[in-house]
Design brief:
2 domains; two-stranded antiparallel sheet
């Protein structure tokens, strides 16, 4: 069972830093930016930036802070199967980035068991050994290779 986190061990600014780190926005996933905004520091000043970077590293290794932050991360960044399926469907249906579309179709076919995983050799010395192929192009290349062997 997860132990209850005592927020009183953390300052309001530390709590804000954790929330900024996980919420949507420019600070999400960036320790230094989250720290800078929570503590009201100026990133354009090199000394302040270096201070914020080292201070954020120190804060993000603090046990009390991590005990508060980790459940937030798990809650916010948790991805379920339905969300992954929606994203995969979107990639398949989009028409902008064809390489991403093809990759998504390959993943979909593997998940659905529709991908060609092995075929039997149709000639050569290793007839019983399955041939591993990934794409139709691989199959066509192998057929051409085997035809060339059979013609010899």
């Amino acid at each position: 069972m997860a132990k209850k986190i005592e927020k009183s061990k953390l300052t309001d600014k530390q709590l804000l830093c954790a929330k900024l780190y996980v919420q949507a926005g420019p600070e999400r996933g960036n320790k230094t930016k989250a720290y800078t905004k929570a503590f009201g520091k100026d990133l354009s000043d090199e000394k302040e930036y270096n201070y914020c970077r080292s201070s954020s590293n120190r804060l993000f290794t603090n046990d009390s802070f991590l005990a508060y932050l980790n459940p937030l991360i798990e809650k916010v960044f948790m991805v379920d199967d339905n969300e992954v399926d929606r994203e995969l469907n979107w990639l398949i249906l989009q028409r902008e980035h064809l390489s991403s579309k093809v990759a998504a179709i390959k993943v979909y076919n593997k998940l659905k068991g529709r991908a060609i995983k092995t075929i039997k050799h149709i000639g050569g010395s290793k007839e019983d050994e399955p041939l591993k192929v990934e794409t139709i192009h691989d199959i066509e290349k192998e057929i051409a290779r085997l035809k060339a062997i059979n013609e010899l």
